[in-house]
Amino acid sequence: MTTPSDPLISTDWLAAHLNDPNVKVIDASFKMPGVMPLPRDDYLAAHIPGAVFFDVDAVSDHANPLPHMFPSAEQFGRDVGALGIGNEDMVVIYDSGGWVAGPRAWWMFLSFGHRNVRVLDGGLKKWVAEGRKVESGQVAPKPAAFKASFDARRTRSMQQLIANIASRGEQVIDARASERYQGKVAEPRPGLRAGHIPGSLNLPYNDLFDVSTGAMKSLDQLRAAFLGAGVKLDAPVVTSCGSGVSAAVLTLALYRLGVENPALYDGSWTEWGAADGPPIATGPA
Protein backbone atom coordinates (compact mmCIF):
# COMPACT_ATOMS: atom_id res chain seq x y z
CA MET A 1 0.00 0.00 0.00
CA THR A 2 1.33 3.42 -0.92
CA THR A 3 0.95 6.00 1.83
CA PRO A 4 1.20 9.78 1.47
CA SER A 5 4.20 11.69 2.86
CA ASP A 6 2.17 14.71 3.98
CA PRO A 7 0.90 14.38 7.59
CA LEU A 8 -2.54 15.23 6.19
CA ILE A 9 -4.56 12.83 4.06
CA SER A 10 -7.65 13.62 2.04
CA THR A 11 -11.13 12.24 2.47
CA ASP A 12 -10.76 10.75 -1.02
CA TRP A 13 -7.67 8.80 0.08
CA LEU A 14 -9.35 7.48 3.21
CA ALA A 15 -12.50 6.49 1.35
CA ALA A 16 -10.36 4.47 -1.07
CA HIS A 17 -8.41 2.74 1.70
CA LEU A 18 -11.02 2.49 4.45
CA ASN A 19 -11.21 -1.29 4.21
CA ASP A 20 -7.47 -1.91 4.07
CA PRO A 21 -6.69 -4.25 6.99
CA ASN A 22 -3.70 -2.21 8.18
CA VAL A 23 -5.44 1.16 8.08
CA LYS A 24 -6.85 1.95 11.53
CA VAL A 25 -9.07 5.00 11.96
CA ILE A 26 -9.54 6.77 15.28
CA ASP A 27 -11.90 9.56 16.33
CA ALA A 28 -10.01 11.88 18.71
CA SER A 29 -12.68 14.56 19.10
CA PHE A 30 -12.39 16.74 22.20
CA LYS A 31 -14.35 19.47 23.95
CA MET A 32 -13.67 21.76 26.87
CA PRO A 33 -14.95 20.46 30.23
CA GLY A 34 -18.67 20.99 30.67
CA VAL A 35 -19.48 21.27 26.96
CA MET A 36 -22.24 18.83 26.06
CA PRO A 37 -22.83 16.38 24.56
CA LEU A 38 -19.62 14.61 25.47
CA PRO A 39 -17.27 13.77 22.58
CA ARG A 40 -17.77 10.05 23.22
CA ASP A 41 -21.53 10.51 22.87
CA ASP A 42 -20.99 12.35 19.58
CA TYR A 43 -18.83 9.44 18.46
CA LEU A 44 -21.51 6.90 19.38
CA ALA A 45 -24.06 8.91 17.40
CA ALA A 46 -21.98 9.13 14.22
CA HIS A 47 -18.44 8.20 13.23
CA ILE A 48 -16.50 7.07 10.19
CA PRO A 49 -17.11 3.35 9.65
CA GLY A 50 -14.77 1.21 11.73
CA ALA A 51 -13.33 4.14 13.71
CA VAL A 52 -12.54 3.64 17.38
CA PHE A 53 -12.69 6.43 19.96
CA PHE A 54 -9.42 7.88 21.29
CA ASP A 55 -10.17 9.66 24.56
CA VAL A 56 -7.51 12.34 25.06
CA ASP A 57 -8.42 12.57 28.73
CA ALA A 58 -8.23 8.82 29.27
CA VAL A 59 -4.94 8.28 27.42
CA SER A 60 -3.09 10.50 29.88
CA ASP A 61 -1.15 10.57 33.13
CA HIS A 62 -3.86 10.16 35.77
CA ALA A 63 -1.38 10.81 38.58
CA ASN A 64 -0.83 14.35 37.31
CA PRO A 65 -3.42 16.93 38.43
CA LEU A 66 -3.06 18.81 35.14
CA PRO A 67 -5.48 17.78 32.37
CA HIS A 68 -4.53 15.13 29.79
CA MET A 69 -0.75 15.21 30.29
CA PHE A 70 1.31 12.70 28.31
CA PRO A 71 1.15 9.22 29.86
CA SER A 72 4.08 6.83 30.22
CA ALA A 73 5.16 4.85 27.17
CA GLU A 74 3.84 1.71 28.85
CA GLN A 75 0.39 3.20 29.32
CA PHE A 76 0.25 4.64 25.82
CA GLY A 77 1.17 1.28 24.33
CA ARG A 78 -1.41 -0.49 26.46
CA ASP A 79 -4.20 1.99 25.71
CA VAL A 80 -3.50 2.09 21.98
CA GLY A 81 -3.18 -1.69 21.76
CA ALA A 82 -6.60 -1.99 23.39
CA LEU A 83 -7.96 0.07 20.48
CA GLY A 84 -6.78 -2.64 18.10
CA ILE A 85 -3.76 -0.72 16.81
CA GLY A 86 -0.40 -2.42 16.30
CA ASN A 87 3.02 -1.11 15.38
CA GLU A 88 2.62 -2.14 11.74
CA ASP A 89 -0.64 -0.28 11.20
CA MET A 90 -1.20 3.04 9.49
CA VAL A 91 -3.18 5.23 11.85
CA VAL A 92 -5.58 7.84 10.47
CA ILE A 93 -6.84 10.35 13.03
CA TYR A 94 -9.75 12.71 12.75
CA ASP A 95 -11.84 14.91 15.01
CA SER A 96 -15.20 16.60 14.60
CA GLY A 97 -13.69 19.09 12.17
CA GLY A 98 -12.85 21.88 14.60
CA TRP A 99 -9.14 21.08 14.38
CA VAL A 100 -8.58 20.59 18.07
CA ALA A 101 -7.62 17.11 19.25
CA GLY A 102 -6.87 15.28 16.01
CA PRO A 103 -3.44 16.90 15.75
CA ARG A 104 -2.86 16.32 19.49
CA ALA A 105 -3.38 12.58 19.07
CA TRP A 106 -1.18 12.65 15.94
CA TRP A 107 1.63 14.29 17.91
CA MET A 108 1.26 11.73 20.69
CA PHE A 109 1.69 8.87 18.23
CA LEU A 110 4.80 10.52 16.78
CA SER A 111 6.15 11.22 20.26
CA PHE A 112 5.74 7.57 21.19
CA GLY A 113 7.62 6.33 18.13
CA HIS A 114 4.85 5.63 15.61
CA ARG A 115 5.63 7.51 12.41
CA ASN A 116 2.96 5.95 10.19
CA VAL A 117 0.21 8.27 11.34
CA ARG A 118 -1.84 10.89 9.48
CA VAL A 119 -4.58 13.42 10.17
CA LEU A 120 -7.74 13.51 8.05
CA ASP A 121 -7.98 16.93 6.43
CA GLY A 122 -11.31 18.48 7.38
CA GLY A 123 -12.19 15.69 9.79
CA LEU A 124 -15.70 14.38 10.23
CA LYS A 125 -17.16 17.73 9.16
CA LYS A 126 -15.74 17.46 5.64
CA TRP A 127 -16.45 13.73 5.45
CA VAL A 128 -20.14 14.24 6.23
CA ALA A 129 -20.45 17.33 3.99
CA GLU A 130 -19.30 15.17 1.08
CA GLY A 131 -22.10 12.71 1.74
CA ARG A 132 -19.85 9.89 2.84
CA LYS A 133 -21.11 7.05 4.99
CA VAL A 134 -21.07 7.16 8.79
CA GLU A 135 -22.14 4.60 11.36
CA SER A 136 -23.31 4.71 14.97
CA GLY A 137 -22.65 2.66 18.06
CA GLN A 138 -19.55 1.21 19.67
CA VAL A 139 -16.78 -0.51 17.71
CA ALA A 140 -15.23 -3.50 19.50
CA PRO A 141 -11.70 -3.88 18.12
CA LYS A 142 -9.54 -6.97 18.51
CA PRO A 143 -6.70 -5.99 20.91
CA ALA A 144 -3.25 -5.71 19.37
CA ALA A 145 0.31 -5.39 20.63
CA PHE A 146 1.71 -1.86 20.49
CA LYS A 147 5.20 -1.15 21.80
CA ALA A 148 5.81 2.54 22.51
CA SER A 149 9.00 4.46 23.25
CA PHE A 150 8.85 8.10 24.29
CA ASP A 151 10.92 10.79 22.53
CA ALA A 152 11.27 13.52 25.17
CA ARG A 153 12.52 15.98 22.54
CA ARG A 154 8.95 16.43 21.33
CA THR A 155 7.62 18.01 24.54
CA ARG A 156 8.71 20.75 26.91
CA SER A 157 8.23 21.22 30.64
CA MET A 158 7.51 24.41 32.54
CA GLN A 159 11.06 24.38 33.89
CA GLN A 160 12.46 24.30 30.36
CA LEU A 161 10.27 27.22 29.32
CA ILE A 162 11.23 29.23 32.39
CA ALA A 163 14.88 28.78 31.39
CA ASN A 164 13.97 29.72 27.83
CA ILE A 165 12.71 33.15 28.90
CA ALA A 166 16.31 34.11 29.63
CA SER A 167 18.02 32.20 26.83
CA ARG A 168 15.42 32.82 24.08
CA GLY A 169 16.80 29.68 22.47
CA GLU A 170 13.35 28.65 21.26
CA GLN A 171 10.40 30.62 19.92
CA VAL A 172 7.20 29.97 21.86
CA ILE A 173 3.95 30.30 19.90
CA ASP A 174 0.63 30.50 21.73
CA ALA A 175 -2.34 29.00 19.85
CA ARG A 176 -5.05 30.62 21.98
CA ALA A 177 -7.35 33.38 20.79
CA SER A 178 -5.82 36.85 20.80
CA GLU A 179 -8.06 38.09 23.62
CA ARG A 180 -6.90 35.28 25.89
CA TYR A 181 -3.26 35.72 24.91
CA GLN A 182 -3.40 39.44 25.66
CA GLY A 183 -5.17 38.86 28.97
CA LYS A 184 -8.28 40.81 27.96
CA VAL A 185 -10.72 38.06 28.92
CA ALA A 186 -10.91 35.51 31.72
CA GLU A 187 -9.64 32.02 31.06
CA PRO A 188 -12.31 29.31 30.58
CA ARG A 189 -10.71 27.21 33.30
CA PRO A 190 -11.46 28.75 36.72
CA GLY A 191 -8.60 30.03 38.85
CA LEU A 192 -6.13 30.77 36.05
CA ARG A 193 -4.50 34.16 35.56
CA ALA A 194 -4.98 35.95 32.25
CA GLY A 195 -2.08 36.66 29.93
CA HIS A 196 0.74 34.79 28.22
CA ILE A 197 4.26 33.44 28.67
CA PRO A 198 6.69 36.38 28.52
CA GLY A 199 8.29 36.64 25.08
CA SER A 200 5.84 34.28 23.40
CA LEU A 201 4.16 34.99 20.08
CA ASN A 202 0.50 34.52 19.22
CA LEU A 203 -1.08 32.64 16.30
CA PRO A 204 -4.64 31.44 17.02
CA TYR A 205 -5.00 27.87 15.82
CA ASN A 206 -8.29 28.53 14.02
CA ASP A 207 -6.49 30.94 11.68
CA LEU A 208 -4.91 27.89 10.04
CA PHE A 209 -8.00 26.22 8.60
CA ASP A 210 -11.05 27.15 6.55
CA VAL A 211 -13.96 27.35 8.96
CA SER A 212 -16.54 26.67 6.23
CA THR A 213 -14.99 23.43 4.94
CA GLY A 214 -12.84 22.35 7.86
CA ALA A 215 -9.84 21.88 5.56
CA MET A 216 -6.41 23.19 6.54
CA LYS A 217 -5.23 26.18 4.55
CA SER A 218 -2.68 25.95 1.74
CA LEU A 219 1.04 25.84 2.44
CA ASP A 220 1.42 29.40 1.17
CA GLN A 221 -1.33 30.59 3.50
CA LEU A 222 0.17 28.70 6.44
CA ARG A 223 3.60 30.17 5.76
CA ALA A 224 2.14 33.66 5.57
CA ALA A 225 0.29 33.16 8.87
CA PHE A 226 3.43 32.14 10.73
CA LEU A 227 5.54 34.86 9.21
CA GLY A 228 2.80 37.39 9.97
CA ALA A 229 2.92 36.33 13.62
CA GLY A 230 6.67 36.98 13.71
CA VAL A 231 7.74 33.34 13.63
CA LYS A 232 11.09 32.43 12.08
CA LEU A 233 10.57 29.10 10.35
CA ASP A 234 14.27 28.30 10.36
CA ALA A 235 14.59 28.61 14.15
CA PRO A 236 13.45 26.25 16.96
CA VAL A 237 9.78 26.43 17.91
CA VAL A 238 7.68 25.37 20.90
CA THR A 239 3.89 25.47 20.64
CA SER A 240 1.57 26.20 23.56
CA CYS A 241 -2.15 26.77 24.18
CA GLY A 242 -4.65 26.33 27.01
CA SER A 243 -3.89 22.74 27.95
CA GLY A 244 -1.62 21.28 25.28
CA VAL A 245 -4.31 20.24 22.79
CA SER A 246 -4.92 22.96 20.19
CA ALA A 247 -1.19 23.82 20.23
CA ALA A 248 -0.72 20.69 18.15
CA VAL A 249 -2.65 22.33 15.30
CA LEU A 250 0.28 24.74 15.03
CA THR A 251 2.67 21.81 15.37
CA LEU A 252 0.96 20.02 12.48
CA ALA A 253 1.06 23.12 10.29
CA LEU A 254 4.75 23.62 11.05
CA TYR A 255 5.40 19.98 10.17
CA ARG A 256 3.68 20.53 6.83
CA LEU A 257 5.99 23.51 6.22
CA GLY A 258 9.03 21.32 6.75
CA VAL A 259 9.68 22.30 10.37
CA GLU A 260 9.99 18.78 11.77
CA ASN A 261 11.55 19.63 15.12
CA PRO A 262 8.85 21.65 16.90
CA ALA A 263 8.12 20.74 20.50
CA LEU A 264 4.86 21.04 22.44
CA TYR A 265 4.51 22.51 25.93
CA ASP A 266 2.32 19.82 27.45
CA GLY A 267 1.18 21.75 30.55
CA SER A 268 0.56 24.94 28.56
CA TRP A 269 -1.45 27.76 30.15
CA THR A 270 -3.25 25.47 32.59
CA GLU A 271 0.11 24.98 34.28
CA TRP A 272 1.78 28.34 33.61
CA GLY A 273 -1.31 30.43 34.35
CA ALA A 274 -1.96 28.87 37.77
CA ALA A 275 -2.16 31.33 40.66
CA ASP A 276 1.26 30.26 41.92
CA GLY A 277 2.80 29.98 38.45
CA PRO A 278 5.74 31.85 36.88
CA PRO A 279 5.56 35.51 35.81
CA ILE A 280 3.13 36.37 33.03
CA ALA A 281 2.85 39.11 30.42
CA THR A 282 -0.24 40.86 29.04
CA GLY A 283 -0.99 42.89 25.95
CA PRO A 284 0.16 42.26 22.37
CA ALA A 285 3.41 40.51 21.52
Over the alpha carbons, how many angstroms does the gyration radius reach?
18 Å
List low-confidence stretches: none
Number of helices: 10
The main sheet orders its strands as: 1-5-4-2-3
Most strands sheet:
5 strands, parallel
Number of strands: 10
Terminal-residue CA separation: 46 Å
Beta-strand portion reads: 5-15%
Structural class: alpha/beta
In oligomeric terms, what are we looking at? Answer: single chain
- What letter string, H or E per element, gives the SSE order? EHEHEHEHEHEHEHEHEHEH
Gross morphology is globular
Write down the overall mean pLDDT: 95
Helix content: 25-40%
Give a topology summary:
Elements: E1 8-9, H1 11-17, E2 23-27, H2 39-45, E3 52-53, H3 73-82, E4 90-94, H4 101-111, E5 117-120, H5 123-129, E6 155-156, H6 158-167, E7 171-174, H7 178-182, E8 201-202, H8 219-228, E9 237-240, H9 247-256, E10 263-265, H10 268-272
Task: Describe what this molecule looks like in 3D.
The protein is built from ten helices and ten strands. The protein is of the alpha/beta class and about 280 residues long. It is globular and about 50 Å long. Helix content is about 30%, strand content about 10%. Helix 4 (about 100-110) packs across helix 9. Helix 4 (about 100-110) links the parallel strand 4 and strand 5. The strands form two sheets. The protein has a five-stranded parallel β-sheet with strand order 1-5-4-2-3. It has a five-stranded parallel β-sheet with strand order 6-10-9-7-8.
